[in-house]
Design a protein that fits this description.
Two copies of one chain form a homodimer. Chain A is an alpha/beta fold and about 400 residues long. Chain A has three domains: about 110 residues, no CATH class; about 200 residues, Rossmann fold (3-Layer(aba) Sandwich); about 70 residues, Winged helix-like DNA-binding domain superfamily/Winged helix DNA-binding domain (Arc Repressor Mutant, subunit A), CATH 1.10.10. Chain A is about 45% helix and about 10% strand. In chain A, strand 4, helix 8 and strand 5 form a beta-alpha-beta unit. In chain A, helix 7 runs parallel beside helix 8. At the A-B interface, helix 7, helix 12 and strand 9 of A face helix 7, helix 12 and strand 9 of B.
Amino acid sequence: MTIDDARLARVALGWLVEPGSRALWLRVADHGPVRVLEGLLAGGREAPMRQAAGARLGDADPRRLAEAALARARRLDARLVIPEDDEWPAALETLIDICDPNATDPIDRDAAPPLCLWVRGPWRLDEALDRSVAVVGARAATAYGAQVAREIGYGLASRDWTVVSGGAYGVDGYAHRGALAGGGITVAVLACGVDLAYPASHASLFDRIAEDGLLISEWPPGAEPFRHRFLIRNRVIAAITRGTVVVEAGPRSGSLQTLRRAGELKKCRMAVPGPVTSAMSVGCHEQLRKPQEVTLVTGVPQVVEVVGAIGDDLAPVPRGPEHARDRLAPVEQRLLEALLKRKPLSSEAVAARARVPAPDAMRILPSLVMRGFARRREHGFVLAPDDAGAAA
Amino acid sequence: MTIDDARLARVALGWLVEPGSRALWLRVADHGPVRVLEGLLAGGREAPMRQAAGARLGDADPRRLAEAALARARRLDARLVIPEDDEWPAALETLIDICDPNATDPIDRDAAPPLCLWVRGPWRLDEALDRSVAVVGARAATAYGAQVAREIGYGLASRDWTVVSGGAYGVDGYAHRGALAGGGITVAVLACGVDLAYPASHASLFDRIAEDGLLISEWPPGAEPFRHRFLIRNRVIAAITRGTVVVEAGPRSGSLQTLRRAGELKKCRMAVPGPVTSAMSVGCHEQLRKPQEVTLVTGVPQVVEVVGAIGDDLAPVPRGPEHARDRLAPVEQRLLEALLKRKPLSSEAVAARARVPAPDAMRILPSLVMRGFARRREHGFVLAPDDAGAAA
């Protein structure tokens, strides 16, 4: 299996099954995308998958469609990023933890990580999203909400924080405009293909974002923004950021679902208050009346205080004696850095990630296992927990 | 010692020593006002008291001044209420617990209960203040703050809660006006004599409050509103209410001191959010960022939820069997619903509120009194407390 096979298989699977499917994600984690796609197309043991794919199976050849989508993306100067790529945001993988198989709402059952992301823009995902904050809210923002969203977008950008939002009218749009004016990176996570402008009047805004920031979508170029996709999409916004700020929200605003996801993912939740006479602040105030959970913020300094602190709190993971790892040869270190903590990677995949010749990886990885730096799993290698082998 | 001696002594002591003196309050609690005054005038063991009284001792005869103040009050139709009176609000006594002898700020050292209160208005203090909420905030209220203060005042009054505030421009004034419009009791706690209008343009507002509500002051008629008196006064507002709501407040608003006092006294603290772009909401937002302490409220239902719940904890008023009232004839029920708990209404007024012919009201109301559902007062009828007559 090459990384290009994985790419094609992930796109094909994404076309067959709507993003978020917990069952599909678990199968892919166990067997890799190529084998799962083969099984799905061949019938047989993939019954739950075939059910999820439903009518689309047999409709057309998913591999062909995937190839066409990839070709279309190349023409658009868009690219596909998959978990096997270095720049894949590791935080997305935590979404599997918040899937609730017993939930009545399918959106809560199937909140699994994306299989792949389509991306337009000049930045690596991991780098752009390392210090990022979601700024979300009502489409029907008031003048007040527009002003606050723009100021928060601007202020975050000027402090070198990436702004993440959807692509809607109102708070989303103003947050992006503020970030662009602040000279920072802004990321629009769309519920349709990265080549579609929805709403249409945001076409030039999206072009600017694609130039200076990032447009991201789980759906391939050309995919339409069906209504349910916005709610599926929200989990990505919550997962790739350190925290979510709701600027304005009516009582049933979709942005409150993003805030909830952020809570489930143990990210910071923030809301901006507003006039109690404004319907567009009702949702924010309701959230702020859960005081242990959602922090009132009045501007960027307070937002940064919240996400900055949490970032620092999370970051100093107690690490084993680091010098043992420092004594490894450079090629060994690169292979080790290419390993993931939980997801097993084949030696070929590790070699590709580490940009090391495959035969070298095949030779060195077992020795890293022997010295306790890595572990062998059924389907490949993972990093040993907390550098267990460091003492060796 | 008669109660009139106590009255005179308390007024004289209040003239000698600025309200709030912890040392004086403790002496009076131990020895009674008459003996403390005698000691103070005779010199001797009352050294700390003499120090507190300072230049005023020997300046004039405090007993004469007290008599003059009481005479002036009678001419104004004002009265003096002292702790020896039934109607003295017991909650005031808890102020002694929050005096901090080690505080650097004298306002915090000397936050003792008032020695007496001068009162204008038709209500007993204890009854008027039993279910009361302080609504305070910035003098320089914005149009938004004015609207919210008025609505909260109105809403509390219509739900039979007493509004308590200062007498200042801005939030204080609007809260009172709202409560008056809502037909409820509103109480202005002043930092000057109850005969002075400060600010002058509030003269007619104060007259209306003296008619339908209460004007209260620790200072005798004629006393001027020195600046430090507002901060001394705030402790009374916090102590006589079940909770304090700040509607709008700049970062250093005096209303935040009232809120702090409410916290020290274990009363509910609430704040109304506003636009983050408004300087007049900065103080509220700062308070709301202490989430375990101050509750965000957007309107009267939430205020009542907070103070009502605490009230229920404190006072699970056992109610008589309610079905007795259900057995009344429809017209009787309507008349009963038209009565107020505290403010006597003429039978004509009850008829108008109940939309019942006046002769019917004149005939039925006395029978409701006889059966214990209503009470006759000098100026009309009131509802019997907690359907006292229901069992009849």
